[in-house]
Amino acid sequence: MSAPITVLDGMRSSPIRLVGSYAENSFSQSLKCWVESCMHEMSLAENVLQIIEEAVHHQSFTRVKTVWLEIGQLTCVEPEALRFCFDVVMRGSVAQHARLEIIDIAGLGWCKICMQEVPMATLYAVCSQCGNFGLEVLCGDTLRVKELEVE
User: Which residues of the sequence carry a binding annotation for Ni(2+) (predicted)?
Assistant: First the structure.
């Protein structure tokens, strides 16, 4: 039996408690996976808010209209989960109604064997030219606040 998890319901301030074996119910399994995935995106959204708050401190703007995030294909970030978490985390901040624009950055690696740049769909991809493992990641493994549109 899996350990119980707590999910916050956006309509109520009290948590919903999920208890039982997740193997019994595919909906419960999906919810558990989504919640665990969203925890990663929630901390990323909180980091974005910290970056925004630092920018407010240095530049003294009062409202963020749009946030552009570059998200690398190799980061394992789920864009829809990040959008949800972004909206939740930004509540009550200068970015409360900000639009989130996501710019996808493709994964790119360097093969030390065949000396070629090759596309990477996953972090541990093999070289598409020679089949070598252990590509050196050149890009696509970062998340970056590219730009803020502010008032």
Answer: 40
* Residue 33, annotated as binding a ligand: no
Domains and CATH numbers, the chain: 5-150 (3.30.2320.80)
Residue type present at position 65: K
Structure token digits, residue 57: 């401190």
Return d(Cα 140, Cα 17) in angstroms, integer: 37
Using the 8-state DSSP alphabet, how is residue 6 labeled? Answer: E
139 annotated as belonging to a binding site for a ligand:
no
**Three-state SS for 26?**
helix
Average pLDDT value for residue range 17-35: 42
Which residues are CB-contacts of 15 (< 8 A; sequence separation ≥ 6)? 6, 7, 8, 9
51 contacts 145 by C-beta, under 8 angstroms? yes
pLDDT in tens, 41-76: 999 999 999 999 999 999 989 999 999 999 999 998
